[in-house]
Amino acid sequence: MTAPFLSPRTPRARSVLTVFSRMTNVLIALCCVVFVVGPASGLNGIYGTGDAVVQAQTAYFERWGVIPRELWSGSPGPLLTPLTALFVHGSWLHLLGNVLFLYVFGGMAEDRMGRLPFTLFYLVTGYLALMGYAAAHASSGQTLVGASGAISGVLGAFLYLFPKARVTSIYPFLFFLPLRFPAWIVLLFWFVLQWIAAQRDPSTPGVAYLAHVVGFAVGFLYAWVRYRPSPAPPGETAAATGRVDSAGTAKQQAAEGESQP
């Protein structure tokens, strides 16, 4: 599944200040800037060319990425790497895939949570996702980088907060046809794919799918605990039921429908 996006009802012109009033866009910008100035982008001539670039990339990832077996060495330094690794990406495709999902799903989640809570949620969920992978593969010496654990947490929270939002996705196995589905179908399908892929041999290099699974689960559970509606007292429920007529119900349903993208 590639290129998911939410379709708003009406386009809005936004200034630069308005764009960066959302922490989602700030996080995207940070990831892009860190990647461009790093050795993986190939745009920074300070790292040289050929073998020199490869060596610089290896050293860069080892410094800022997560190496599971080093987390349990007793040194406090490696315990910070799950935070720094969230802003490091290994390739253009890795970066663009992550920022696309964050752009699509992060804005609405941030609007619901608030700027500061969303930022803390993003960082903590990403940290736990990478730590979860490292705990499951404690002896691994492979370097783990990328924001996908945190973004998976955003997807999990989005599934609980906006299950009926319409998501347009392009599926390669369906000849790249753009199709619209409720978010709960798209995200559950994505989660199942990550779960299946997480069963592969962890000793081979590739995508850390288990970090996606952990991040998604943490994000969904957080949203479920934090934002589930509180049950109203029986007396208030009965009184409210007696006062609402058919016109009031219709107005409420129309308002709820308009809040969906």
Automatic annotation (TrEMBL):
Domain called Peptidase S54 rhomboid: residue spans: 82-228
Domain of life: Bacteria
First and last residue of the signal peptide: none
Any Pfam family matching the protein: Rhomboid
Keywords: Cell inner membrane, Cell membrane, Hydrolase, Membrane, Protease, Transmembrane, Transmembrane helix
Coiled coil (UniProt feature): none
Record-level GO BP terms: proteolysis
Keyword presence, S-adenosyl-L-methionine: no
Location of this chain's protein in the cell: Membrane
Major localisation: membrane
GO cellular component, one term: membrane
Transmembrane segments: 80-104, 116-136, 142-162, 174-196, 208-225
GO MF annotation list: serine-type endopeptidase activity
Residues covered by region (Disordered): 233-261
Membrane topology designation: Multi-pass membrane protein
Keyword Protease attached: yes
Name of the protein in question: Rhomboid family intramembrane serine protease
Organism field: Streptomyces paromomycinus (Streptomyces rimosus subsp. paromomycinus)
